[in-house]
Structure formats: structure tokens, C-alpha cells
Specification:
Elements lengths: L1 E3 L8 H17 L7 E3 L2 H7 L4 E4 L3 H11 L3 E5 L11 E6 L2 H6 L8 E3 L6 H4 E5 L6 E5 L3 E5 L10 H10 L4 E5 L3
Parallel strand pairs: 1-2, 1-3, 3-4, 4-5, 5-6, 9-10
Antiparallel strand pairs: 7-8
């Protein structure tokens, strides 16, 4: 498996997601003897000769061309509208939110799924016993929830839902960065 992303060394959220996917796949698949590589150099893909190519957002078009030349399938992670390229070799389009996936009607429903970015839940959640029910429940320990939006397509990622949550969850502070 090869992940091809021209900007995977950046510190942006999309790059964190692709590196997180790489680390998870590597941890699970390499012990099974399945090699995985991440690169930002197209030439390295040909030398690696993968059976599956994975990319994200704006690298989808060049990745689809490489996959076609190698006659292999590819997956693409989508973080915003219009990033996917409908291609016969694309076997999976992976969205980071249900809202974004449902708003994109260009691609085949059977080839779409949601993979939400991971987080460090040990820092965010605390297991506590409810004194009334005596059941263990998870509670947020960090009272600040941060949402980072971006210009242009922010509304398609469901920022209206974040604003609604902030109104309903008055015990928490919300930090919103980006246009509303």
C-alpha cells in the first residue's frame, strides 16, 4: 500500500489525518507482512509498485492517473467539496464527516464511507460513575471544544451544527476559528 500526498509533512489538519491513517495502517498491516509507504514523490510510487494507492484532496487527480498507469485501485480522503475525482479505478472515497459525505452526490454511494479523524481520547475523556445510576460513563474533562473551519466551503462541513451545539452545551467553552 502506498500513500501519495504532496504535502504530508505540513502541520495542517488534512496532513495530520493522512499521517494518522498511515501510522494506523502501518501498525496493523506491517506485522501481517503487508508493506506500507508514504511519499510525496510520484517516482517513488513506481519503484514501490503498490497494489493500492491512497491519496487525499487535491492530489486525487494525479493519483488517479498513476493508479490508471499501474492498473491498481486507489482510495481518496476528502476534506472538502469537489475534491474527489470520479474515476473507474477509485474503489473508495473516504470523508471526514457524515455531513460532507451526504452533501456530495457526485460519487457512487457504495464507494463512499466516513472515517472520522482520531483524537487522544485519554486526554479528553474521563470515566466516572454516575451517582444516581451507578453506571460508568465517559465525560469530557477538557471544558473547551475547538472547531477549526476554513474559508469557502466551511458551511458544508456543518459549522451550523457546531454553533447549535455551543448553544446547547453551555457548560463548555467553544473556540471557533474561521468564517461563520
Amino acid at each position: 500500500i502506498c500513500i501519495f500526498v504532496p504535502d504530508w509533512t505540513s502541520i495542517g489538519g488534512s496532513e495530520l489525518t493522512i499521517r494518522d491513517l498511515y501510522e494506523n495502517l502501518k501498525a496493523k498491516l506491517e506485522p501481517e507482512g503487508i508493506a506500507i509507504k508514504i511519499t510525496n514523490e510520484a517516482q517513488e510510487i513506481y519503484g514501490f509498485s503498490p497494489d493500492l494507492l491512497i491519496t487525499q484532496q487535491h492530489a486525487t487527480k494525479p493519483c488517479s492517473e498513476i493508479a490508471a498507469r499501474l492498473n491498481i485501485p486507489f482510495w481518496t480522503l476528502l476534506h472538502g467539496p469537489g475534491q474527489g475525482v470520479a474515476h473507474p479505478k477509485a474503489t473508495l472515497y473516504i470523508y471526514n464527516s457524515m455531513h460532507l459525505m451526504n452533501s456530495d452526490d457526485r460519487l457512487t454511494p457504495g464507494k463512499k464511507m466516513v472515517l472520522q479523524p482520531s483524537n487522544n481520547s485519554k486526554k479528553m475523556l474521563n470515566h466516572e460513575k454516575n451517582s444516581k445510576t451507578n453506571k460508568t460513563q465517559m465525560k469530557l474533562t477538557n471544558k473547551t471544544i475547538t472547531f477549526i473551519g476554513s474559508t469557502g466551503y466551511n458551511y458544508l462541513k456543518g459549522s451550523d451544527l457546531v454553533i447549535e451545539l455551543a448553544r446547547k452545551m453551555s457548560d463548555y467553552k467553544f473556540v471557533y476559528i474561521g468564517p461563520v
